[in-house]
Amino acid sequence: MVPVPVRATPPPAETGELISPVSAGGGFTRTGIGTIVDMDSLEIQVDVNEAYINRVEAGQPAEATLNAYPDWRIPAQVIAIIPTADRSKATVKVRVAIKQKDPRIAPDMGARVAFFDPAVPGAGAPPRPAGGVLVPADAVRSSGSTGLVFVYRDGKVARRTVTVGPSAGGQRHVLTGVSEGERVVLSPPESLKDGDAVKAADSG
User: Is the pTM here over 0.70, yes or no?
Assistant: First the structure.
């Protein structure tokens, strides 16, 4: 038998301490001894760029990805759009229901959400970007939540570090680093470097 180290943690309250709904300022008074969580009502609240909020609607299918489990796709659905914008961030908050119960899901975990087009049948429909763009998946060299792409402009390529989201339908959701309308290099070779001159395939 292999011994397993155990780290002792103090109990939330000690015998003789007082429990109060408000802070009393004393060393022997606690404001609570536990937290109750209704796991059946867990939901995700995500900030969607206001430029894309017209693409999100109540009941729309979605897919959630937890930062702790980036390869795990969790089916989800839009509950509602909160009708208040955050002017400092130019975003609107959206409530998203988690449709799969799992002990790995815990309150306050970080998550990303991809929204699917309800007009397209099938679970493999590409997600609509909620702040970001969709690029061909083979244009991105990724490792975890970051990646690398080469953007083509005026006969040369520029190396970009990007933040990536989920993949679906042969496309990758790029959250930051690439703007809509920019052209990216497909399957960039390992030898390609920032500033290299290249010729576009459609340039004749």
Answer: no
